[in-house]
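Submission sheet (multi-component)
Chains listed below:
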Amino acid sequence: MKQITAVVRPGKLDAVKAALVAIDVVGMTINDVRGFGRQKGQVEIYRGNEFTVDFLSKMRITIVVADDKVEAAITAITEAARTGEIGDGKIFITPVEEVVRIRTGDRGNAAL
Amino acid sequence: MVHVPLAGGGPTPLAVFDRFRTKALAKVQEPELKRYAVMLLAFGAGLLPLMAGGAKAALAKVPTDGADTLLMLMGSALVLLMTPGLAFFYGGFTRAKNVLNTMMMSFFLMGLIGVVWVVVGYSLAFDTGFKSPFIGGLGQMWLNGVGGELGDAPLADGFAISASSFALFQGMFAIITPALISGALVERINFKAWFWFSLLWSLFVYCPMAKMVWGGGYLGPFGEIGAIDFAGGTVVHIAAGVGALVATAIVGPRSTWPDSKRPPHNVPFILLGAGLLWFGWFGFNGASYFAAKGAGFSFLTTTLSASGALLTWCLIEWFRDGKPTAVGAATGAVAGLVGITPAAGFVYMPQALLIGVVTATACYIAVQVKAAIQFDDSLDAYAVHGVGGTVGALLTGALAAPALVPADYFPKSAEILAAGGNGALFVAHVKAVLISYGFVGVGTAVILWIVGAVVGLRVTPEEEERGLDFVAHGEEAYDPMTY
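Outcome: structure written.
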């Protein structure tokens, strides 16, 4: 099992969710996050004065999938979230030791 | 503001329009056109009932008029709403951790000044006990005797509004004026210092200013200078603006400024606040006409100036930065409302629009200059109210229509206009502005020095970092654990 953490543009959340549901990913957790990468911040103007906003809003999506679904999930997220401009975000893959469904006590792939 | 005379006689407030009508009609020769013009004027200004009267007598004792008094009561409610409106306007600009403190600096004054005004403020501004052109007296403390036993007696000869409605209306102005200053001091001033500062400033700066300009005092149309201020360009906006300027200089910038400037935390609040201010300004300027039949005139000049100023500010941004902003629209509207305040009953529509455009441009430049010299007038209290009030006051002198400044209500000002035209009135307004700057500047500095020595002006840098909502009030506006 792998945990896939994707940081994407907030406006792409719905598209990413739809793409993941289409490949039978049955659950996800999201957070509002802020950060910057190569995009750096953006300049905003209030009353003619410039403010540099360093941390931009992003949406962080966390899912856990069986090993054989990892590539499909990466493809789904990438295709749904890409605009081609700087600031599209990143995907991180990490191994997961165990998963437990609290209601039934199921473990491993059965709990996904 | 139609000024309260100490004594005298004259026509109804609306005779002003009769004169305008006569003058305008004199120029129209063709009978056909004349009939048309009569209809147009009558329709436009809603003056038909008035034309029948049109009497020119001495400022005669008139009975209290229900409609006029109702205008004042409605106007009072509108102006009261400007203070929470201002709280939203200012609150949107600050950081999320300081929004409650910022809003309380305005909102709290509905309590503090609301009491002070009835107890002694009104008397200091409008009583004549001290026989001074600079300060009122103590004879009308607790509004004693205002409007007679039932409160329904007219304000003065020539005025059909009840004295009690006038005292109420004026109280709303007294509340919002110190609140305007708070924009210069947010995110660092100690709330205890704000309590004492606004109390002392109200009594010893605002009340004398109101006396000097509106209470038959030194600066106004019954006094030495003869300046006219319809609804508070000098008394409210120059006073608050200069108070803010001096207070910023004395209190100093926020400890993290300008290194970690933050954009406004809630721009929708700013738009909400500006909208409430505009709404309330119909009372502020509109009801300052003091007569329901003619007040449509000052309502119109007010809203036209605001519209022109909003448009001007956004167009400047569009050309300079490529995009018109919501904050710019809100700021422009407020600047236009400030600019027209001293002029709302003294100019016609083209001049009202011009005042809006010029004031917005001047305030826009002032905001840029303030940023360039890194002066932490945090929410532009001086750059908008001080500069806007000053520009408005000077333009009122330059543009006031003599027909709208009748001699029985504004003797000194009308005399200046008759003798030297708008140039002379402009000079009088320059004098009034300079005297106001001097008086308010010195008064504010002395009060801040006293308050600073007794309770201290600022919170500590650590408290600034923590956020004043928690430090001053033990509250947070937005609880991250709400579920």
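Remark: The domain at 79-111+127-136+169-473 of chain B is CATH 1.10.3430.10 (Ammonium transporter fold).
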